[in-house]
Structures are given as C-alpha cells and as structure tokens.
Amino acid sequence: MLRSTRRLLPPRGLSRPLSSQISATAQPNNWKRPLEVGVLPAYDEAVAYIEKDAAAKREKLEALRKVADGSLSPGELLKLEIESKINLPQVRWNFENNQMDLNQPVYRHLLEQKWRTKGRLDRLMERIYQMHVVPDVIPIIRPAVDVRVNFADTVTPRYISTPRIPVPEKKWAKDLSDVVPGSFVSPAKSVEHPKVMAQVFHPEPRLYTLLMIDPDVPSTATSSFQNYLHWLIPNISLSASSNGAISTTKYTPSIPYIPPHPQNGTPYHRYVLLLLPQREALSLGADDIIRLGFDVRSFASQHGLQIAHEDANSSAGGIFMWRAIWDNSVSAIYKHILELPEPRYGPPPRLDPYLDEAGQRPKKYPELPPHVHMQAPSTRITPRAEQTVHNVINS
Question: Strand order in 146-150's β-sheet?
C-alpha cells in the first residue's frame, strides 16, 4: 500500500506556514496580536467570541456593584471579575511571560492555580505526610503560601569542608537555588541561613511568623526525640505584590539562626520551615523561648498563630522541609559555631548475662584463698591392692 505523499496546503491567504507568521509578528516584550485580521478567519472568530463574553461579564459586574444590595458576596463578585478577564489572549500572554500585575485578581488567581495544580503543592504535601512532619511537628496544615528555599547564595566558611553526602545521589538537592521538598542538603551548605521566598495570594499586607524546627534531636532522658528551634522571625509583612524574600536585614529575628547539625549516630534529620499567620503584632523576647524541647503547638496557641484556619475548608500559612544527615562538616560546626563537644549516639550496648555487677566476667574455675591448700592425691598402695598385684604376677 502506497503512502500518500500529498502535502497539506496552507489555508487560503497564507503564503508561509502559520508558525513562521506567528513568530515573525509576535513581540518578545510586549503582547501583540499574532495574526492580522483576515489571515485566519477561525482565529478571528475565536478572539471575537472571547472579547464579547468578557465584555458581557464586565457589564454584569458593573451593574451588580452599582446595586450593592448584598445579594452577592464579595467572593462571588471577585469570581465574576476574574472570569471577565481570564480568557483574554493578552492576559494569558502576560502571565506566561511573567509580565503580570499581581494587584489584579486575575493574575493572582492564575498564579495560585499554577502552584496548586501543576504538581508543586502535590509534591510538597506528599513529602510532608510521607516523612511524618504531620503529626510529629504540627497536627494539620493546609498551605496557602508558596514557600521556597534557596541555598545557592550561601557562603561556606573555609574551616568547613564539603564532604560527600552519605545518601544515594538521587536524593540530593541538585538545584540549590530552588530546593525540592524532602531532598538532602549537606550541613556545609546550610551554615548560613537560606534565602526564603514566600509567595502569598492576598492583596492586603498580613503578618507572619517564620519558624525553623528540627524534630529529630535525641533525648537521653526519654530515649526518644525532641524539637530544637533553629530560627524564629516574627512580624513578617507579606502581600501578593510585595517582594516575598524574607531577609534578616529587614526583619529582626527573635531567635538567631543556628545551622543544622544532625548528631553523629542518628538517622537523617528533618528541617521544617513554618510560616504561620499572626492575628496581631508580636513582641517576643529571646529569654522567654527555649530552643531545646520547643513545643510548636503550645507556642502557636499562646501567641495566636494559625496552624490551620478555623474553617475546615480554608487554608492558612505555609510549610517547607528538607533533610540532612551527619557528615564531617558537623564536627566543624560543633567546634567553631556551637563551641560545644560533639556528642555521639548509637544503638545501646548488648547485655552480657555472664557479667557481674562490676562488669567483669567471672572465672570458670575460682581461685582458692592463699591459706587453703589442696592435698596432693596419695601414692601409697594399700595392703589389699599389693596382695592383688602379687597374685596376678604369680598366676
């Protein structure tokens, strides 16, 4: 059977392929209609339909705002405003080319939907529950803030080497400028605090508190694990249009940053960043907060931080986590930064049932006291034995 070799002809009026005309007419820094009117009638009809629908929804929105009788909630009006712009080609082009104005609800909606539906939030929640951050650190969380971590700009001191992470290579954080949740970052790369980026989706400024917690510090008293507070920054003002970089030059930490230092002999440690909404401005003193044994739940309850929104269907706050395991750089952190002797943990020693109370194994044949002497066995032959031997010889 012969394969047809006919080439598809371009639509009438096109002397070049459609893709070449689009690339030739589109501007890289400013949106422009990719095809002139009349070049492709189907495209003209589609654009006209979208613009007509958008104009009708704008008219309806203006009419409802003038009435303002309370029949529609602010959320329903916001939804109608987004629907009136979301399908416009210019809006879509601006969003895809990162030329959006986040003061406009339609761009905030598109940005949030991209975060929620394109896999980033799904991967974060998978790691949070798979690695038991919930419920080990917090009972529940429904993130409403896109939190990202950047270690690429941190500087490693000269006295700290960068050893190979003792985990499989596929679990390393390959891109330190945008760390994947749950991946491994060497303690040598986190000596300085990371650059934390937080993208919120509400237009008005709101206050947040940043917490960094390690829930995997050994507790010898309970033979279990306990929390360690590495970092605490309150009163962080964030809005959709503001720069989401959380900088210590702009915000003063209540608890200064202490780098991750997973102890020798322990499994990997989880380092959890929490960005929790505040109800009001906080005044925190470092003397009132204890790093070791820090209780997230009681701290949030005491200072009015929202771990989860009161409405079960709503979201609040943000979360991020990465992992680290002991390597040689931790020893330098203990020596030069913490200025503490480095502890070492491991499995408990096996009990030997043959050891005494002093930890000594008793001898199999105990020694007698010096004044006790055992008599050597007698070699004297009794008369009866002598007569028996004489009878055997003479027989």
Answer: 146-150, 195-199, 245-246
